Amino acid sequence: MCGICGYVGDHRPELLEPMACAMQHRGPDDMGTWHDAGGPVGLGQRRLSIIDLSPAGHQPMCNEDGTVWITFNGEIYDFDTHRQWLLGRGHTFKSHSDTEVLLHLYEEHGPGFLQQINGMFALAIWDAERRQLLLARDHAGIKPLYYWQDGGRLFFASEIKALLRVPGVRRELNRERIADFLTFLWIPGDQTLLRGIQKLEPGHLAIWKDGQLAVRRWFSLRYEPDERVRAEEWIERVHDTFMRTTRRQMVADVKLGAFLSGGLDSSSIVACMRHAFPEREINCYTAHFRPEDLNRDQFVDDYPYARRVADHLKVNLKSFALESKMISLLPKMIYHLDEPDADPAIFPSYLISKLARDDGTTVLLSGTGGDEVFFGYRSHQAYRQYERFDWLRWLAAPALSAATSLSTSLIGAQNALPRRLRKFRNALVHRGLRRHLAIVDWSSHAARRRLYSPTLAGVSPGEEYEPASMRAYFDAFEGRGELNRHSHMLIQSFLAAHNFLYTDKSSMAASIEVRVPYLDLELMRLCAAIPERYKLHGDETKWVLKKAMERYLPRDVLYRAKTGFGAPLRKWIAEDLGPLLAELLGPKRVRERGLFDADAVQAVLKENEANTADHAYLIYCLLTLELWQQTFIDRAGEEVAL
User: Fold this and answer.
1) Could you tell me if 542 and 264 are in contact, meaning their C-beta atoms sit under 8 angstroms apart?
2) Which of 302, 376, 321 is nearest to 546 (CA)?
3) What string of DSSP letters covers 539-576?
4) 1, 494, 492, 520: which is closest to 203 by C-alpha?
5) Residue 380, CB half-sphere, CA atoms under 13 Å: how many?
């Protein structure tokens, strides 16, 4: 795992070191730069040594005659298989790294080598003979890659803060994307909240040549359920594939462990680790809640289940308590995230990573992605209900509205029941993309619209807004099944632009590499072929995975209700964030920014305090946005001191 950066179309070697140093946390073990005035091109890298810890793994790296150069962030899980094939083709190696394997695969296949590999990555390859630069991001967007163009010049980096070291990059707010942020808590698509700085999307590559940049998709997954295979065989295929997936992602020359929340996904990964290595010491890490923090947000403390799994599998488990004082990390988290992301899950993700790093662990396996590929969310269950109720949705919707209003008046808007009823009703009355958007909306159009100042209202979308990126994901779905399409949408947007964003950035803030076995290419392709009824069996989510894991895990772990991974946000807003909200969302500060109506912001805060509305995530969005602007608009990517 590393941080990469570079340029092409301009000769600016003096910028490589400042860009790389801005990402020192991504690679504390080594730094390298290379440039060629004849390109003109330059590559930089910060290295976190995982495979081949020797100096031979230093990057940027070149082939034998110096005509191809690479800077690479990630891991290639099948690199040894490719290495053996390349040796047979006459290639020589000076290291045992996966990076050098990529160099020679590029020599053999050109950009088509991306179709040959299984891994997570962001990379840049300079081909001196073709005088072109290739940028590429892995199939699911596990690793980040940003770029900025200015005429024929192109600069790229793993993090935005590195691009802000380039003279000429403007720190201008992309106002057109604010509505997206307030809707989803993150920014989908290829844009960021900094105008002009773009993301290379998952499964895409970009080729710069003669001052022009051409971007195209290189990966797509087709969902074709195979109805000929019996349930019992699917269970065994899932078992065997998941075992291979997990085992090959355990290859490392440093200490490796796992997140263990006590939920199905992380517990299954640890079970596979134990099965693959019965005698190895395995270290796992988690967080636990204090009892007083559970009620308002309807959290369930997973720790007893994590402890049960650890004892059952005979692995070590270390944990820490999630406390309200960790909100003081918010400026640090916003600095490391680069993009605003209003999910408090960033805090436990960072603190667990730090706990592991302090324990001497460098690589963690994570259960991220299990819900997407095996249908684990409540939204999957909701889609099944929509299929049943579609014919009478216009009758059911008024009843649900009445139930939502009644439950709100009796138990408050912030209780889980009215929240879920409201979201279920909003999605029920829609179909297609509009249904998916209703499910993933974290506030409401009406609540957002009244916040906008006149200047922002002029660029903000109407109620029927469909972000172009979300429409593109929806239309790009290949295969059959509405539940499969829903998962495809989640993988393309929610997973890539949100879960992987905060997982990568929060773990790299602690210099930890996180691997995600559920998004292994072999397992993803298998899941795309499993009929929907085996992933969601009746109302049982992830049924085929649970059946495959029954031989390793207790039933009360496998079949318990899903709980969220996050932090007690509603408690923080009600009890802990008062002074910070008063300072950063007070009328004076809001008017100075000019984005929102100060009186409307105060009304939102009061409604939330009175529990007549659930604005917790909207408020947290506003708070996050203000701190993000202080970090990346007012400053050039510098941590704010509160």
Assistant:
1) yes
2) 376
3) TBTTHHHHHHHTTTS-HHHHTSPP---S--HHHIIIII
4) 492
5) 29
Residues 6+ apart with CB under 8 A from 14: none
Find residue 281's DSSP bridge partners: none
Q: Measured between alpha carbons, how far is 437 from 431 in angstroms, rounded to an integer?
A: 10
Do residues 519 and 487 lie in contact, with contact meaning Cβ atoms separated by under 8 Å? no
Beta pairing, strands 41-47 & 2-8: antiparallel
List the single range of 301-310, 389-398, 591-600 with lowest mean pLDDT. 389-398
CATH 3.60.20.10 domain position(s) in the chain: 2-217
The CATH superfamily label for domain 222-290+297-330+343-375+482-558 reads HUPs (3.40.50.620)
What contacts 105, CB < 8 A, 6 or more positions away? Answer: 82, 86, 113, 116, 117
Closest of 207, 209, 225 to residue 217, by C-alpha: 207
C-alpha–C-alpha distance, residues 43 and 35, integer Å: 6
* Spatial contact of 523 and 241, defined as CB atoms under 8 Å apart: yes
Could you give the residue range(s) of every CATH 3.40.50.620 domain in the chain?
Answer: 222-290+297-330+343-375+482-558
Residue 420 has a pLDDT of: 66
DSSP letter assigned to residue 174: -
pTM of the model: 0.95
CB neighbours of residue 42 within 10 Å = 27
Strand partners, 62: 69
Q: How do residues 369-405 score in pLDDT, each as one tens digit?
A: 999 999 999 999 988 887 777 656 655 666 656 656 6
Neighbours of 464 (CB within 10 A): 9
**Tokens 């020679």 -> residue:** 104
* Domain 2-217 superfamily per CATH: Aminohydrolase, N-terminal nucleophile (Ntn) domain (3.60.20.10)
